[in-house]
Amino acid sequence: MALILHLLLTNRQIGIKNEEIVNYLSERGFKSHRKEVGQLVHNLNDFFTFFIGYPLIHGKPKKGYVIENEYYEDGELKLLVDAILFNKDASAKEKEALLEKLLSFSSVYQKERLSMMPLLETKQPFSLILNLTTILHAIDEHKNITFHYIDYAISNSHPIEITAKNGNGKSKEDYNVSPYRIYLDNNHYYLIGYFSKRKTNLSMYRIDRMRYVRRIGGIYVDIQDQYDLEGFITKRFHMFASGQEVALTFRFKGVLLREIVSRFGNTIHVNKLKEDWYQASVDHVLMNDGLKMWFLMQGANVYVNEPVALKEEIEQDLKKALSLYQK
């Protein structure tokens, strides 16, 4: 069936007749006949109907078998392809293999419409796919995992990988963890789990920094019910989601308008000031380090009025930064 599907996909809009399929199979050492081809196409359509809800292959008078519809809509495929292409941790080889699978049901015309950027030759000292697969199986089976976790040092003016030695296994390099959840943030995957050296809190590890990941025996420590896992994720990954609620007032230049709306939403109240400056106010904003850092990153394009405590913290941080340049 795979050979027939490949032939149909290659000639999806032209069409392929029974006799041509029989000859195609014969050239590759497979004996067949018209009736058998018809049954194989019927089986393929049963397969597609089960998975996507409709038959993909249609018989047309004079044209033979055709595939009229793409398996993915162009927008769907573009979203999936870009998720692979722009992943920061997968190697070029892994991306190429994933794209080949993803595009296997797409026509030449659809692939041309995507206008994909070329793959850069990148190598990784680990396999992201293998790490994810191993961890997901361990989570599903309530098994522990062990791995080495990397750190960095400077050698000959360049950063190099070194193995962290704060593990809890037979060797100080071995980290034995009971895994609970994989989370994606800023295009990096993180593992959340239990590490025996931190009994009073959950632990988190970037999966692209894990080496030699494998499942191991031992007692799986499941203490998830003792923690608010969603709250842990929110605090660690979304800095705006923790802290005291305040009424925020600030001025900003018009160049930041889109960024302001993106950050605070379209319910923010904005008034035009002189020249290209605006005054903004928004209620129920969570005051924390994340909010302060965001304002600091905007430089001279923004000025916080209230709360006064946030304004003073930003002022102190700017003075410290300026003192470094004035030495």
Descriptive terms for the model:
11 helices, 4-stranded antiparallel sheet, 26% strand, 6-stranded antiparallel sheet, alpha+beta, 327 residues, 12 strands
Polypeptide structure, described:
It is a single chain. The protein is of the alpha+beta class and 327 residues long. Helices cover 39% and strands 26% of the residues. The protein has helices at 2-10, 18-27, 34-52, 74-85, 92-102, 108-114, 128-141, 229-237, 257-264, 289-297, 308-326, and strands at residues 58-60, 64-66, 144-155, 158-163, 175-185, 188-195, 203-206, 210-216, 244-253, 269-272, 277-287, 302-306. The strands form three sheets. Strands 3, 4, 5, 6, 7 and 8 form a six-stranded antiparallel sheet that branches. The protein has a four-stranded antiparallel sheet with strand order 10-11-9-12. The chain has a two-stranded antiparallel ribbon with strand order 1-2. Helix 4 packs antiparallel against helix 5 (92-102). The longest helix is centred in the N-terminal third of the chain and has 19 residues, at 34-52. The model has no long low-confidence stretch (mean pLDDT 86).
Number of helices: 11
Backbone shape: extended
Query: Quick check: average pLDDT?
Result: 86
The main β sheet shows up as: 6 strands, antiparallel
Helix content percent band: 25-40%
State the order of secondary-structure elements, H for helix, E for strand.
HHHEEHHHHEEEEEEHEHEEHEH
- As residue ranges, the low-confidence spans are none
Could you say which structural class the secondary elements and strand pairing correspond to?
alpha+beta
Instruction: Count the beta strands.
Output: 12
- Assess the beta-strand content as a share of residues: 25-35%
